[in-house]
Amino acid sequence: MDPKLPPPSPVTEPAKQENPALEPRSAWGRWQSLWVGQWGNLRVLAIALVVALTVRVFIAEPRYIPSNSMDPTLHIGDRLLVEKISYHWQPPHRGDIVVFAPPPQLTRLGYKPRQAFIKRVIGEPGQTVQVSQGQVLVDGTPLQEPYILDPPAYRLDPVTVPEGQVFVMGDNRNDSNDSHVWGGLPQQNIIGRALLRFWPLDRLGAVR
After folding, report:
1. Are 161 and 135 in contact (CB under 8 A)?
2. By CB distance 3.0 to 4.6 Å, which of 10, 71, 138, 139 could disulfide with 172?
3. How many alpha carbons lie under 13 Å from residue 78 in its C-beta half-sphere?
4. Which helix (H) or strand (E) holds 54?
């Protein structure tokens, strides 16, 4: 006789676990999910916009060259990146190429406050700038200027740069509306320093 086997244990099915993610959603649920997703995209877009505006206002901004006053260093149509941070902790120095809003001397002549100029810093506060016999002199010392288009064909009697101002000139000395015409530039009018030319691509590089 076969030994008597114990009766089989009853088998119970595991309790069904509900997974809302796998359950078919109602039309309201689908619409709500879509709406939340759209708001998420809008939030990302808003954050990106705020970051872009912050960078432009406080850090750097693109500019283009509308005139030939900085030839041969910069040409009409060049696109530049202008950084706006460094002058918060240090003053402009000779050789810096700066973008600035028109000083009072020019706004009185009808230039718009939002119109921007770009020139090279030649004289710092307290220094004396002079132009004589086609040569720019600072404190009586002739500057070595390989970046200019032509020597200046005009004379400028010695001018001492006031505190809080700089003396700026265009590299195209004979076709530039600059400090030799209207005087010193208040440092508070400076928007930033030209840092990088990003267009055209064949001239990509630092601005000097």
Report:
1. no
2. 71
3. 25
4. helix 27-54
Per the annotation, the verdict on 69 as an active-site residue is yes
Per-residue tokens: 20: 């809302």
Is 67 among the catalytic positions? no
Phi and psi at 126, nearest 5°, equal 90, -15
Cα–Cα distance for residue pair 53/19, rounded to 1 Å: 44
pLDDT tens for each residue of 13-56: 444 444 444 344 566 666 556 555 666 566 555 544 444 444 44
Structure tokens at 107: 């706004």
Residue 162 near residue 179, CB atoms below 8 Å: no
In whole angstroms, give the CA distance from residue 157 to residue 16: 96
Selecting among 4, 67, 69, 86, the annotated active-site residue is 69
Closest among 64, 83, 84, 82 to 74, alpha carbons compared = 64
Q: What are phi and psi of 60, to 5 degrees?
A: -160, 155
Structure tokens at 190: 């400076």
Catalytic residue selected from 84, 119, 176, 179: 119
